[in-house]
Amino acid sequence: MQRVAPEPQEFDRVLSSMCTEPHPVAREAATRFFATNPGDPATYQEVAALEARAVDALGDIAGLPDPHGYIASGGTEANIQAVRAARNLARESGGRPSKTDSPVVVAPESVHFSFQKAADVLDVELRTVPVDEEFRADLGAVEAAVDDDTILVVGVAGTTEYGRVDPIPELAAIAHDHGAQLHVDAAWGGFYLPFTTHQWNFTHADVDTMTIDPHKVGQAVVPAGGLLARDRTTLDALAVDTPYLESTSQATLTGTRSGAGVASAAAVLDELWPDGYRQNFESSMADAEWLAAALDSRGFDVVDPELPLVAARIPDDLFDALRAADWRISRTASGELRIVCMPHVTRETLRAFVADIDTLV
Ligand code: 0PR
Description:
By secondary structure, the protein is α/β, with parallel strands linked by helices. It has 2 domains: 24-272, 3-Layer(aba) Sandwich (Aspartate Aminotransferase, domain 2), CATH 3.40.640; 275-360, Aspartate Aminotransferase, domain 1 (Alpha-Beta Complex). 37% of the residues lie in helices and 15% in strands. It starts with 23 loop residues before the first helix and ends with a helix. The structure holds ligand 0PR. Residues 17-19, 74-76, 79, 112, 114, 156, 160, 185, 187-188, 213, 225 line the site of ligand 0PR. Ligand 0PR binds at residues 17-19, 74-76, 79, 112, 114, 156, 160, 185, 187-188, 213, 225.
């Protein structure tokens, strides 16, 4: 029997990534489904069934008992599709949101850059508003920016730079008061939320769509993003006819898709939800708090971690020296060091990192 080659990427010193080492069951499932295409579900029925199972599991995580959605190529596709669905629904009269010819998406300035791509390809205006001093969406600024052309308000649950969770129930209320939809970008944070004090989800807040990516905290292989929608009409608004396939319509943005990503997501969700993901959250959060305290005690300004992501202001020359020492680290737009405590980041790795800081300063 042929051996599977080891992963070329060495994760040991990767502290900047929102992806992680795939779980063994994800890796194994991926290798079995490389040659399948969930874009043609009538032909590749086994992987289509796995996709339905993965979407149901994502629905469990997000508090959505009857989820509509699919496994996307990543958070970028899921976000583009959420904007596209809102735009298409707005074109149909009578629905929510209301009809407009110049659609606007209102989002905090902390949104991921995938929304710029969405606005560009879909010809909608992306109107970003300031965040508060804790880096969360400022409700007053959102309220002031929303108008009759607004089709969608976006909240982020686990921002890319600071790991912050926006006030989602309040954003949903603002959106719906103005006839717009509410999309939550939980691409990274979605797998942590059930274990935090954030007691909102699809059940408790009026969320319309959500991005939640198995290939990030979910430990699936790349590519496996997740798009969830409360209503069937959202998927219908994305669907095009597929005359020469046995299945009659397709709601995804890509055509041929990775069966490996889909199968890996189904397998790892089966394996880890809920207990494995809870354990990951608890140990990663403890690591983030340990690192925050270690950096704080050395005199660096630390942004208190809300989810397992630590940002801290360190001198530029120290950042460069750590990069030169082969640490894969990154900076926020305003220059803070940013460490993402993904499942592959262990306490031992963080101790070695802090020891290098002590040597280099
Ligand atoms: N939404 C949020 C909140 C994100 O953080 C990201 C990606 C996306 C959407 C887009 O997801 P995809 O990249 O799956 O399309 N955030 C990280 C970033 O852009 C992704 C990342 C992953 C970066 C691995 C580096 C890396 O090594 O920074």
